[in-house]
Every structure is written in C-alpha cells, then in structure tokens.
Amino acid sequence: MREKESFEQMTRFFCPGRVELAGNHTDLQRGRVMAAAMDRGIVAEAEPNEDNVIRVFCEGFDPIEVDLARLWPDEKERGASAALVRGVAGELRDAIPHPMGFDAYLISDLPPGQGLSSSTAFCVLIGYILITFSGADVPPEDLARAVQKAESRWFGKPCGLADPLTCALGGGVYVDVLENKIVSIPCDFAGLGLTLCLTDTGGSAAPAEPAYAQIAADMAEVAKEFGEPFLARVRQPVFDEQWPLHKNDPKWRRARHFFDETWRVASMADALGLRDGKRYMDLMNESGRSSEMYLQNIWSSVCGDSLTWGLEASGHLLNGKGAWRVHGNGFAGYVLALMPEQYFDGYKAAMDELFGDGACRRIRITQKGVRALTGE
User: DSSP label at 292?
Assistant: First the structure.
C-alpha cells in the first residue's frame, strides 16, 4: 500500500457529519426525523487506480483494501470498516456497472462512537468517490439508501435513512420514513439570533451499541403486540387506549417516546418554517425530557454518567433561557444545546470548565452535502 505522499493526481473531497435536530430513535420504526449537515466532517484526497481495488488510509486506523471483484458480505469483516467499504460498493453494484478502484487518504473531524454519524459520513464519502471516479450518475437519495443498507446488512449496525440523506444532501432535512417523504427545511438558527452547539462530555458511546439495538427491539416488540412490524403502523389512539395499563413497562415507555417524538418532529419543522425560535426551543426541551423519562438512553453502566452530568449542567445554565437534549443514540457522547447568542459565551465557558477546554463547540449548518472540493 502506498503512502499519501506517493499519490500523483489527487482530487479533494468532503463529506459533512450531521447533527440530529429531532427524532431521537424514531426512524428505525418508520417515524419522522430531522437532521442537518454541519461544519465538521471528513476530508479525503483520492485518485483512481487501475487495480480494481479500493484502498483507504485514515490516520489512527489500519489501512483498508477491498477488491471490487469480491463484492459479497464477509462475516470476518462484520463490525469492521472494511465491511462498510465493501458494503457500499456492493450496494451500488447495479448502479455502477464498471466501478473504478481508487486510493484515498482520509482526515476526519468526527470522533468515532460519539453520535456525529462518523461511520455514515465515511460510507457516503467512499460511495461518492466511487461514483465520481466511475463516471456514474447516481442521485444522492440512491447513494443514501445504499449507505443505509451497507451499515445495516454488511456492517451489522441498525441505521436509519435520515443520517446518510443529510450527509449526502446537506442543509436541513426532514424525513417521514413511512410516507417516504423527504423535505429540505430551513435551519437558519443564526438568523433567529440563536446559537447551536455540541458539548463532548467524554467517553465513547460505542460500548453501548447493544443498548441501541435493544431500543429498536423493544419498540418493535410493542408494535408486534398490535400485530404490526413497526410502530409507525400502529394507530396512536389505539396505543393511547392501552397506555395506562402498560405505562410502567420499559418497552412501552420507549414506544410512548416514539409517538410523542415523531409528532414533535413535524411541529419543530413547522416552527423553523415560521421562524419561531421560542416554540422550537420549547419543543426541543420536551424532546430531551422524553428521552430521559421514556426512551431511557441517558445513562449506561458501561459508559458512565458523564452525559448525565452534561445534561444536568445544561439545565442549570439554560433553564428559562435555551434548550438542551441528548444528541444522537445517547448513553454517552454529546449534549446538544440551543440558546440566544448572548448566552453562548457563558455556557461554553462553564461546559469547558467541566469537560475540558474546547469540549463545547459552536455548530454551523452547511447547505452543501458530500462533494468534490475542486474550485472551492
């Protein structure tokens, strides 16, 4: 394998990570979710090769090599980055009849296991480079669906459609999975005088991956009690009628979160469209409380309680001023917060003191998804 310095005709590419705005753990049950592409992501310098092989070099990780003539799942790779590369290429096989191998050197600003869709951005980036060098015409939506299947089927991690769509399309994205509805939404928080930020509370959420899968399994179990494969097929009035009998059952409490949260997503999208920042923040706080009370994805024995501290500190700092909630899958990782601009400096200083200098970072929404950087 070659080192980066030996590449001769490199093209620079970028894929943004995503910030989850609303819809915590709803899309795998065919609910609604809202996300936005952010100003953190993965940069790649890549060039095509004549070896029919994809080679990926990323600082801090072992090199990856995937033969494009062997595009079928390999159980030995399951859970490894090679499965993502092979999976994306395999899922794009019909759309790219003559795939071109390439060598790529990646630098990521998305820490793995922290809920910033690092693996999804990686997949979208690899798929986009493959499409570009192969001269294929693949819509972003089809690339996103290929990535979803690669993560779920080849890698072995449940993945919804919203994350790859956001990385591929850029901007704000509202997805109603059941209705197959994809809508671009305005995310002009700065124009509303608001600052969006993420605080890294420390620790990796990766050890809690079985707990993520359990959330989806619990919701699906409740759906089966109604004779449906997923909760979006269950009529909410029917669920509400049974709720008082089961409200202390953890599985039903997670289902309660699904119905409340998927409704909130639509309301939060409406609030953004109406430029109603206060309404949006009120709903964001409701989302955070629901994750804690019903979804139960705040604390895990294998991840520690740093996320709990971050949420409690945010509540103390922002109560009556802004909004805060768990970001992404939960159990560890990031606190998402939104507040009027004048409160950000004080909030950042306090969170940095708790979790380390630079732990809190302002997030800006980028309107561009995965792309080649030529000319930028």
Answer: I
- Neighbouring C-beta atoms of residue 274, cutoff 10 Å: 11
* Token pair listed for 315: 């509540």
The domain 4-186+367-372 is classified under which CATH number: 3.30.230.10, 3.40.50.2300, 3.30.365.10, 1.20.1600.10? 3.30.230.10
Instruction: Answer whether 160's CB lies under 8 Å from 148's CB.
Output: yes
Nearby residues of 168 by Cβ (< 8 Å), 6 or more positions away: 124, 128, 140, 141, 143, 144, 147, 369, 370
What Å distances lie between residue 174 and 75, 169, 219, 265, CA to CA? 34, 11, 22, 8
Helix (H) or strand (E) holding 148: helix 140-149
Q: Which of 209, 201, 222 is nearest to 360 (CA)?
A: 201
CA-closest candidate to residue 103, choices 155, 164, 58: 58
Quote the pTM value. 0.87
Give the tens place of pLDDT for each residue, 268-283.
Answer: 999 999 999 999 999 9
The CATH superfamily of 190-363 is GHMP kinase, C-terminal domain (3.30.70.890)
Q: What is the pLDDT of residues 87-96, one digit of tens each?
A: 999 999 999 9
